[in-house]
Design a protein that fits this description.
Length: 148
């Protein structure tokens, strides 16, 4: 691990614990060269999970893509970015709990929507509109019934 202050590679961990969500490890490190302390977070790399897109193409899971989609759902409203981090962590925990190594894109969207519904109704509706083709009021009603 490189020190963010002097870029030296010799650091030591002097404190470590699980985060509240349980899917990350928080570590305090100290650089042996300059003595500065800094925090790192270690989490499971979910790229072993593949996402089957609607087109039939497979791609590795991307936390950045999920986070971006959730961020867009909150756009235009006042929110704390830690909320999006928490939602992303919750969705990832649910993906891990599913035990699947291949998830359809709509399964991932469903997990995100169920999670979002409990955090913010407006963001839930925005995410739903981004993930589905809602061309008529009957389609909107049909999709909303899935999450009641």
């Amino acid at each position: 691990m490189k020190c963010p202050f002097c870029r030296e590679t010799t650091t030591e961990v002097y404190n470590s614990r699980n985060t509240k969500s349980g899917n990350q490890i928080w570590r305090r490190r100290r650089c042996k060269n300059c003595g500065q302390a800094f925090t790192t977070y270690e989490y499971i790399d979910l790229t072993f999970v593949s996402i089957l897109k609607r087109s039939g193409k497979m791609e590795p899971y991307s936390r950045a893509k999920l986070y971006s989609g959730l961020y867009n759902a909150f756009a235009g409203s006042s929110f704390d970015q830690s909320v999006i981090d928490a939602i992303t962590d919750t969705v990832e925990t649910k993906v891990l709990d599913s035990g699947k190594t291949v998830l359809k894109a709509n399964e991932l969207a469903h997990i995100a929507l169920v999670t979002l519904k409990h955090f913010n109704g407006t963001a839930f509706l925005r995410y739903l509109s981004l993930q589905t083709d809602l061309a008529s009021s009957s389609q909107i009603k049909k999709e909303l019934k899935k999450y009641q």
